Amino acid sequence: MIRTICAILFTLVVMPAGAAGDKLLLATTYDEVGTNPDGSKYTGTANVEILSDTTFAIRWKIGSTIYSGFGMRLNDTLAATYTVNGQPGLIIYKVGDGGVLSGLWSIRGQNGSGTDKLTPRN
Predict the structure, then answer these.
(1) Distance of CA 96 to the CA centre of its chain
(2) How many Cβ atoms sit within 10 Å of the Cβ of residue 79?
(3) Positive or negative CA dihedral for 115, 120, 121, 122?
């Protein structure tokens, strides 16, 4: 899994800007559902701010906790970083039908990974 994440990040960093395709279009607010590595479920919301043609800021609110991150994209794949208790985390989303983002996330030094699904609000 680490090799896959490293390969994706390497590709995101070394690909020329034009390889990312058209301008980055994301919703500003998403409803969120996910699972933690232990299988427990969570719900929340996410807010996205486009920073450039390929980068964005993202804030996830789960319960009363807010996680802030920065991300970029390559075609229909988004990667974003965040911090949990001082440890870096990484999430990789695939953009699906209707702009739904389906992701897999992990935190450095922790076993397992979680899932995250962001559905654009209408």
Answers:
(1) 13
(2) 20
(3) negative
Question: What are the tens digits of pLDDT across the range 81-96?
Answer: 999 999 999 999 999 9
Instruction: Output the pTM of the full model.
Output: 0.81
d(Cα 33, Cα 46) in Å, to the nearest integer? Answer: 10
DSSP labels for 14-78? HS-GGGG-S-----SEEEEEEE-TTS-EEEEEEEEEE-SSSEEEEEEEETTEEEEEEEEEETTEE
Give the number of C-alpha atoms closer than 13 A to the C-alpha of residue 86, restricted to the C-beta side: 0
Alpha-carbon span 97 to 21, nearest angstrom = 18
Set out the domains of the chain in order of their start, with CATH numbers.
Answer: 2-13+26-120 (2.40.128.120)
